[in-house]
Amino acid sequence: MEQGVAMAVLCIVAGGVAAQVLAARLRIPAIVLLLGLGFLVGPVLGLLHPSQSFGSNLRPLIGLAVAIVVFEGGLALDVRELRAAGEGVLRLTAIVLPINFVLGTLAAHLIGGMLWGPSAVFGAILVVTGPTVILPLLRHARLERRSAAFLKWEATVNDPVGAILTAIVIEILVGLPHRSGEEALTDLALHLAEGATAAAILGSGSAFLVAWAFRRDLVPETLKTPLLLALALVAYAVPNLLMHEAGLIGATVFGVALANLHVPGIGELRRFKEALVVLIVSCLFVVLTADLDPAVLGKLSLPVLALTAATLFVVRPAVIWLATWRSDLTWRERLFVGWIGPRGIVAAAVAGLAGPRLSEAGYAGGDLIQPTVFAVIVATVLAHGFSLGPLARRFGLSVAADAERLAIVGASPWSSALALALHRAGVPVLLVDTYPGALRAARAGGVPTLQAELLSREAEEGLADQPPDRLLAATRDELYNALVCTRLAPELGRERVY
Question: What parts of the sequence cross the membrane (predicted)?
Fold first, then answer.
């Protein structure tokens, strides 16, 4: 048994990392290869059976891993982005969710042929777009800041809310028929209030505790990352005792609050957690797809495929256009966001629990939820993963250039002449300096410039619209050049800073 578990872990980790490396070399979304690997070693070849290897521990382990993923997703949400995208973010979180639930439920009933109960569960799962898919795709496509904010905030905020909505729908379908309506509704409302309150208090309280301790140097550097991970898991596990899936709110709130308290040194810790999350996401996608029962795949039928197509081409675009009507989003942004809505880990995990529970309660069609949700996941990951970058460039919503952009720090006469020569040769270049006079000659020649101290928050915001691929530190201060390269090497790559 122990040897089987060890081999399963080895195959999952090694296979997931290999898929990530291969995807980076081929410049394709890694999630596509991860799904393919999971199907290959699981349902196709039968080499990996996570449920058999890990037994009843599999679902709790998946839950803890998802908690770390949504915590890292929360760390990516900066409230400063709301200055440019505030109305769109509000509509994509507060208005999209109920419309998506209603239209998804109608589509499942009218097109998928499900009964109203399973249709409502499918509609609830459908509101989740998921940071586990969106964030890697955004890093790959390099959207401009406003469009990226729309997708990031929608995915991260709707992820826990959608999971809790699914839990509420299941509780109504399974629990209410066995109790008096008023008593059951009161208990459900109480559990929801307890879970949400505990999640909000634990999440925000943990963030303020970390900020207080870090600023007073009460935590050694070697223990900062373990402390953050431990608190994220606590913020996830405790609310779950009160309300199923409420822990996702706690982990998300912890990440968002911590990101916006601007704790010193949190940027370096975030880079480590990003690497950890890449590993976790790789393993999760392999595990969940490898764990699919071939009998579940055998239930894919014409109505299921029709429902999947309706989800992509009808439900998602209609939801976004209704929710953003008369908003400040341009028609290009509405079309783009209306197309991009991939589902991920949370949708798969919730579907794996919801379907069997409805079937055990005697709901006909409950066994269709899991294959239908996985069909939607695969279709959206493939369609949106391969089309996000080209569509963003087509609509002018991408900051990625055809060639790699070079940032030159320090506007001396020599570096200004270099920047001008590269610009005339068609090479994307950005000249950075703190003094406007030093940038005057380059600006006159049409060279993009940024007047800011490169390591400041102002420069960070400016670089978000013109992200460099390589950097040349060419100021007259050798120590400052070394500091710039040291700070940016983990983000750009040590072979890409000079």
Answer: 6-23, 30-48, 60-77, 89-111, 117-138, 159-176, 196-214, 226-242, 248-263, 275-292, 304-323, 335-356, 368-388
